[in-house]
Amino acid sequence: MSSIVCHPIIKNGIATDARIKKQRPPPLVVARPRDLIQEACERLVLSDQQLRRIMVLMEKSMEQGLSGKKAAVKMLPTYVDAVPNGTEKGDFLALDLGGTNFRVLHIKLEGKETKMTGKIFRVPESIMRGTGEALFDHIADCMAKFMEENNLKDATKLPLGFTFSFPCEQDGLTRGKLVTWTKGFKASGVEGSDVVTLLRDACHRRKDIDIDVVALLNDTVGTLMACAFQENTCQIGVIVGTGTNACYMERLDRIPKLAGYVDEHNVTPEEMIINTEWGAFGDDGALSFLRTKWDDAVDRESINPGQHLYEKMISGMYMGECARVVLEDLAKQGLLFGGHSDAISTPHCFPTKFVSEIDSDLLEDDDRTFQKTYQILEDIGVEMITANDCANVAYVCSLISTRAAHLTAAGIAMLLNRINKKHVTVGVDGSVYRFHPTYPTLLDAKIAELIVGDIEYKLMLSEDGSGRGAALVAAVATRLKEEKLAAAATASER
Ligand code: BGC
């Protein structure tokens, strides 16, 4: 039978935080092995065996992607084959589009020092889902404003790094076709088109700004580069924010689809950063063995059903919604909120920041008063909240975030095992990694369990990879271009 003993905390003015404090809930439900909620949520707990299976399946999907066959994990070449050597300097512009905000940055690199000025612009939902032309006009408009305000309009064309955090099929450092939109974007006419051309066209349409795009990159690549600038053992870049993704340094001899590739210097590089686009892992059914009816519900209601299924079990855009559909189901089964599910039934009423806040109740609140949890439930309009409800909601949130951390750990551990170097730094960024109270620790602990041999790794928080990383990729590209011109000049003098 259920261990839920109801201590109603009714909301009509009698219930206050003080009352909750006095009414300590019994020990966390999680401690009671036969609890109905625990039973109902069993599938959200992943065993190490399941995580190891994920690692095998993901590597298989990656191998397929690298070979050029149709694969869920696309393994996109980035044409970034050199990390910064510390001599990069100069002035750069960086554009960063990857979520609800768009940033324009002016970056000065001087040795290990970076000076940045920037401005954040919102991307309204109407633009995210309007036409591609309107989206790129908005970007160009924001850029023009920034350049005007910072007296950059008359400056000679600054080299520009464009961080575009969506899957792009690149065939060079400055070209890339959008494979598919993710993270709630749906602007028409962009999928299949080169996003650098779309940006240039938008600048030409308004005639008052000119740009010199020297690099198009994914945010994971920026993250890797920004960390590599400080720590030359950095080989992996990971984002766990609105979306999730990873890139890593792969040996060219393990990228069959790039067989015969030579760069503009006629050289075959030894390695190249591969943008895995692991968010789409499972889109071919590989994750069916552990997906739940709740994951199906989140996917069904999303803007891109059937796509980016691994991302939908992990990232900030979906974590809250995933917790919400579990809570709604438990309420409908009569296991929460006295069986009242109305308040929790509104899609997206439970954003990921609630999961973080509730998880921090579990972490910080020794008395288990669940004040934040109560407040959140009350704010979204749940009518009958018991102390046990609070404990159970916190339990569900911790299951969802732990599952997300463990799924990510499987991906990172697989990459570490594959790279198989003694010391590897993993650059990580994104709002879930930065702001969720337990996610980084859970991630780290599980990676340590899943790696094999004597690999030593460390997770390093990347300082603004999307901005600084874009300038660094632009700087490396500019340095290599200058070196090439100098070499050509010397050759012609001979
Ligand atoms: C995109 C990736 C991106 C990640 C993190 C995903 O939805 O497909 O390209 O790196 O989000 O921003």
Automatic annotation (TrEMBL):
EC class name: transferase
Pfam families assigned: Hexokinase_1, Hexokinase_2
Catalytic reactions of this protein: D-mannose + ATP = D-mannose 6-phosphate + ADP + H(+); D-fructose + ATP = D-fructose 6-phosphate + ADP + H(+); D-glucose + ATP = D-glucose 6-phosphate + ADP + H(+); a D-hexose + ATP = a D-hexose 6-phosphate + ADP + H(+)
Span of domain Hexokinase C-terminal: 235-476
PROSITE patterns reported in the protein's UniProt record: HEXOKINASE_1, HEXOKINASE_2
Domain Hexokinase N-terminal, residue spans: 37-229
Pathway annotation from the record: Carbohydrate degradation; glycolysis; D-glyceraldehyde 3-phosphate and glycerone phosphate from D-glucose: step 1/4; Carbohydrate metabolism; hexose metabolism
Main function: Catalyzes the phosphorylation of various hexoses to hexose 6-phosphate.
Superkingdom of origin: Eukaryota
Biological processes, Gene Ontology terms: glycolytic process; intracellular glucose homeostasis
Keywords: ATP-binding, Glycolysis, Kinase, Nucleotide-binding, Transferase
Name of this protein: Phosphotransferase
Signal peptide range in chain numbering: none
Entry keyword ATP-binding: yes
Matching CDD domains: ASKHA_NBD_HK_meta
Keyword flag tRNA-binding: no
Known EC number: 2.7.1.-
Recorded family membership: Belongs to the hexokinase family.
MF term (GO), any: D-glucose binding
